[in-house]
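Repro:
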Amino acid sequence: MEKLSLKLFNPNSRNETSKLHCLIPRLRYASGYTQQDSGFSLIEVVVVVLMIGILSAIAAPGWVAFVNRQKVNKANDAVLAALQEAQREAKKQKLNYSVIFQKNPTTQNVEVVIYRADLLISTKLLGADIGVSSDKFLLGANLTSQNTAGSSVSYTLSASTKITFDYMGTLPNASFGTPVAPSTEPPGLKIVVAVPSSANSTSASSVKRCVIVKTLLGSMLTAKDDKCS
């Protein structure tokens, strides 16, 4: 303790401390460090902004494609749900139920209309209950008349875009189309949801989802992309 006290009150120790304080700025100057170097230079900020821009440009198309796929998936689920509801009610009520997909001439939104025999049961916007606006996708079908498949899918909706189930839930007088080589199976009744083409908003892109009614018993399956053409 005595040695420690002597050292603390030693006048020479004060000189050593002042020398140390004088040495620190010299070391900073010698190493190139000054207070002004503590921020970012304009070049560094520009480089970071450019990198963020490049990464965003790369990621944006993938994100848009993902969102579009989610939209058509949800809309296709709504198409399937409407057809299943009509088939279920036809068997339950022992009456014919029809599903018609039409475009509202005023709003241009796609509507799903369910009839029981000749009595209107419900009309709702396709995708409205799942938060997808129907003006963001195209809806088409290969139907030329009730329960009759044509040779190609048309995105012009009409009264012929109609599928009817009888009191047993089957499809009366159905024609599932002509097989297209190399397939030996009829194409079936197709309701197609598609992302619009970037070049033409009235044409379908390659991103498609569809519901296909394959048999007289009304069995349904879902497919995508080239299988929906």
